[in-house]
Amino acid sequence: MEKLMVRGGRPLRGTVQISGAKNSAVALLPAAILAESEVVLDNLPQLSDVAVYGEILEQLGAGVSWSGDTMRIDPSRLRSAPMPDGKVKLLRASYYLMGALLGRFGEAVIGLPGGCNFEPRPIDQHIKGFEALGAEVSNEHGSIRIFARELRGAKIYLDVVSVGATINIMLAASRAKGVTTIENAAKEPEIIDVATLLNAMGARIKGAGTETIRIEGVEAMHGCRHSIIPDRIQAGTYMIAAAATRGDVVIDGVIPKHMEAMSAKLVEMGVQVIEMDESIRIVGAPAYEPIDVRALVYPGFATDLQSPMTSLLTQASGVSILTDYVYSNRFKHVPELVRMGAGIRVEGRSAIIEGGPLNAAKVRAADLRAGAALVVAGLTVPEGVTEITGVEYIDRGYDNLVENLRRLGADVWREQE
Ligand SMILES: CC(=O)N[C@H]1[C@@H](OP(=O)(O)OP(=O)(O)OC[C@H]2O[C@@H](n3ccc(=O)[nH]c3=O)[C@H](O)[C@@H]2O)O[C@H](CO)[C@@H](O)[C@@H]1O
Ligand SMILES: C=C(OP(=O)(O)O)C(=O)O
């Protein structure tokens, strides 16, 4: 196992290039199952989740080949085999195998997903969707077994706005008979990206990115070529790191519209945010105002940026409040930040953050974004070295993190534990 070493105190300066979005990639790869010929995905991020998904598709019989950031997936010989454990346990998004295999073959047996389990993350809305489409769903020894003689379009109202359930239902409904509507659908940019791919494969999906999505089922789908949208969570993390180190960084290859909630909060703190066509420049300031942040579904402030934002708020002069309305208890970064000297207490679903300097410490990333929070925190500390274990979580979501930060002038390296 490796650990990440951070000697902070240097303002980040320069340009960082943002790769494709993890949360799109891990949905687009299983979406390729629905096609009967080759799907080519460009701008894939080099992340452990993406590598694992490629291996899962190979295990199911797909031809998979990489060239740079492009993956070619030939699903013509793919079959629906049970996947009760193994690789499906390594990532959250293995749940998309359910919708994709159900759509193409009418059956799937998939182990309950793994990934970052910062709190219980139910999939009841996914199952409700599959059942509404006519599938029988049962839990057999920790695996979800789904079977349908025929999938029929249905009207599905989601009780909670769920990214995963919205995409999973889109996948299965693309090959159902008749029309499916998803009401109270999630509106994240990754949902539009998946709908764009599916439509290029021959699906008929309208309304992705709004709260009502209409899917007219088709009998067959074909291959296509698609380029993945930029990762707004990676982009937001670098925006935060630039501000936290009082740096001057251009975050390149982003869609500034996707970053609006993040940009607005940085401006409120006193950070200079300069938007260009496909990049954002962040110019830090010597002192920051404390602010309130509410993590919400898109277009609200992303919950996946809540943890690194907590680290930035330790740099404000005064008390900030950060409330997560998506997850009630996503605070595994807080005890570790406290170990670094932060004044933070958790009350209900809020973190109350008192600004002040941090110290270097030995800390552990308990999940992906908790890890990002610790990296940001370490970058602010001028004395000593912050040692971060649990790097395997960080590798789920940040490709070339060490190289990118070093190029921006940070003193960061990996060592064997
Ligand atoms: C692979 C991927 O894209 N992961 C993202 C996706 O996760 P994921 O798709 O798992 O998250 P959801 O949008 O489904 O979860 C939102 C909320 O709904 C609840 N819920 C969800 C489904 C369900 O069946 N029942 C239920 O109660 C969850 O517990 C959570 O409180 O969106 C989250 C919210 O933006 C992000 O943090 C994750 O990075
Ligand atoms: C929680 C996250 O991912 P996942 O849903 O894949 O665990 C995340 O990206 O912050």
From TrEMBL:
Record field: catalytic activity: phosphoenolpyruvate + UDP-N-acetyl-alpha-D-glucosamine = UDP-N-acetyl-3-O-(1-carboxyvinyl)-alpha-D-glucosamine + phosphate
Pathway the protein acts in: Cell wall biogenesis; peptidoglycan biosynthesis
GO biological process annotation, one example: cell wall organization
Primary localization: cytoplasm
Catalytic EC class: transferase
Binding site for phosphoenolpyruvate: K22, N23
Residues annotated to bind UDP-N-acetyl-alpha-D-glucosamine: R92, R121, P122, I123, D124, Q125, D304, V326
A Gene Ontology molecular function term of the record: UDP-N-acetylglucosamine 1-carboxyvinyltransferase activity
Coiled-coil ranges per UniProt: none
Post-translational modification 2-(S-cysteinyl)pyruvic acid O-phosphothioketal, affected residues: C116
UniProt keyword terms in alphabetical order: Cell cycle, Cell division, Cell shape, Cell wall biogenesis/degradation, Cytoplasm, Peptidoglycan synthesis, Pyruvate, Transferase
PANTHER family xref list: UDP-N-ACETYLGLUCOSAMINE 1-CARBOXYVINYLTRANSFERASE, UDP-N-ACETYLGLUCOSAMINE 1-CARBOXYVINYLTRANSFERASE 2
Family listed: Belongs to the EPSP synthase family. MurA subfamily.
Protein name: UDP-N-acetylglucosamine 1-carboxyvinyltransferase
Species name: Paenibacillus pasadenensis
